[in-house]
Protein: Olfactory receptor
Amino acid sequence: MENTNNASKFILLGLSQDQELQQVCFVLFLLFYVVIILGNLLIIITIKLSERLNSPMYFFLRYLSFVDICYSSVTAPKLIADFLVERKTISFVGCIAQLFAVHFFGCTEIFLLMVMAYDRYIAICKPLHYMTIMNKHVCSWMVVASWAGAFVHSMVQTLLTTQLPFCGPNEIDHYFCDVHPLLKLACTDTYIVNVIVVDNSGMISLSCLVVLVVSYVVILVSLKTCSSKGRLKALSICASHITVVILFFGPCIFIYMRPSITFSEDKMVTVFYTISTPMLNPLIYTLRNEVKNAMKKLWSRELLSVKSCNDAACK
Structure:
């Protein structure tokens, strides 16, 4: 790849050039990243060990938490480390690898959110056939299809970018390598690539959002025939998922449903869906009573087990 490009590395301008602000951001984003890792690990471990959280919904939630950890880990560690150095560089190969990983895990999350919406639709609109339709085999294939679809999407974005010549300057006005900032550095006409990127990333985000909105409209309409207790339970189940969808899809559509035009808000919007949303997801889902009760039961059992072991050791 380096033989076809004059740029063997890129300089990332980061979120800010202010040294004092970068020190504050280092502490803040390090805290955010720790919360992302611990919060999503807590979700994964609780679902894995709890006998009560064995429904398809929590099967998908476990994978969503895993994707959140991977997704934030693509950009957050590099961002945090760059706050401590004056010259923020990344190799060409490292930049392309980061581009691939960002779109791979980001698109996987989009497809998983769609799968989770379908799961909620079946659970609420066809409850008698739920376990037959959403059996373990089907759920596993849905997860595999999400990974495969994201891989194809990411390969398209990556291959398009690597074919472009980069003659300089090599400064990326961002804190990680993404398609639009890289297209601005290419020393050739990128109109066609721009159109393909918008059709690929933007239309995936928009079309998936439309499908999600339609599915939840159908769910809300079907709730009219339910009892008040059943309606409240169904709404509580859907509320957390709708919140996550809004937080994730809104910024994605803002970034990718337009040509490579830079706005001053782009960096902060990107921070929101690459770091803030993975951090908020565990909080949103742990507000559900089933998850909270499972966590209390699981961790109280673990504490009692540790206490019993300590008492036995003392005797």
